[in-house]
Design brief:
alpha/beta; UDP-N-acetylmuramoyl-L-alanine:D-glutamate ligase; 5-stranded mixed β-sheet; 13 helices; 16 strands; 39% helix
């Protein structure tokens, strides 16, 4: 039996959530519903203009893959995370928060210079999340930050698609996947964002290589990846990318391909408040389910319930007691 259920690889970001209107986004020239990379000056400008819209005062270490491995850990799984932060207040907080959540990490993640990455998450009244991200020291994530022994001792390597935006991070993802293949560790990838798929397709293809074991995406990401507006065609084409995959569809639940057949997992009814972290929570819950011996459909139903719980509140995490409550329905 391997030591870790999941080894995650992703950007280390400290999140700030802000409640905004569509007019706010339009006035500030922000494209709704997507993740946009910005420099620190632009991020400070946005924060200054939206300072009276803050909805979350408690910091939490974020980033897509970090959210996923933290949720898996909170459900009771064992996880490892490789990232890069600076030796500043946010960086020190980030590494301690990982440890407090039971996530092992690369020992040299903290560097003396630079600024830890930050993500401004803007939530509109339709619960849609729009992100402007300053990657900071995350751009320095490299192959040197990989722990080959930990990858080999994990059931899954989980890569966030956002890593494709930087040359060094993309190369680290490619090398991590190769280490995983040689060690018999399965490879899971999240496409992360429709804009990432649209503008960084070639880089994502490099990470996928000859194929991966498990793909996570939402419906729009699937359509963009397969360059079609027909979901049935996309589902068929996704088999060329991954042996298994899950396509989340919001209120319509999720579609799972388990390697043999398509399965539909119903959504859990919820009044959405904040969709930030929904896909990350889904991936963490799903990975916890399948690495705990449950079938793909059971894992997807469980993951839908977990994602619904997180969109019913602000922030990408649940309260500790909620994780145990959700696990009671895993069967």
């Amino acid at each position: 039996m391997k030591k870790y259920h999941v080894y995650g690889l992703g950007n280390a970001l400290v999140d700030t959530e802000i409640e905004v209107t569509d007019n706010n986004l339009n006035d500030l020239g922000i494209e709704k519903g997507l993740m946009t990379l910005v420099d620190e000056e632009r991020q400070h400008f946005l924060l200054d203009n939206l300072a009276d819209h803050m909805v979350m005062s408690k910091l939490a270490c974020g980033g897509s893959a970090a959210n996923t491995v933290i949720s898996l850990s909170q459900f009771g799984g064992k996880s490892f995370f490789s990232c890069k932060v600076a030796d500043d207040d946010n960086g020190r907080f980030y590494m301690q928060d990982l440890a407090d959540n039971g996530v092992d990490h690369n020992a040299d993640a903290q560097i003396s210079s630079g600024i830890t990455g930050k993500c401004l998450v803007m939530i509109t009244d339709d619960a849609e999340r729009t992100m402007n991200t300053f990657l900071g020291t995350s751009t320095e994530l490299s192959s040197a930050d990989l722990d080959g022994d930990a990858i080999a001792d994990s059931e899954y390597l989980y890569i966030e698609g956002y890593l494709v935006t930087g040359d060094s991070a993309r190369q680290a993802a490619i090398e991590a996947a190769e280490v995983a293949r040689q060690a018999g560790t399965k490879i899971a990838l999240s496409l992360s964002d429709p804009g990432i798929v649209e503008y960084f397709r070639d880089g994502l293809k490099e990470i996928v290589g000859a194929g991966i074991d498990l793909l996570f995406c939402n419906e729009q990401e699937a359509l963009n990846w397969c360059e079609t507006d027909n979901l049935d065609q996309a589902l068929e084409q996704l088999q060329n990318t991954a042996k298994q995959f899950v396509v989340t569809r919001g209120s319509q639940g999720s579609v799972v391909f388990d390697g043999d057949e398509y399965l539909t997992a119903p959504a859990q009814p919820i009044t959405a408040v904040d969709t930030n972290g929904a896909g990350d929570m889904f991936a963490g819950a799903y990975l916890y389910g399948i690495t705990s011996g449950y079938g793909s459909l059971s894992a997807a139903v469980f993951a839908n319930r977990a994602a619904s719980a997180v969109v019913g509140q602000y922030g990408p995490r649940l309260h500790s007691a909620e994780y145990d409550g959700l696990k009671e329905g895993l069967k």
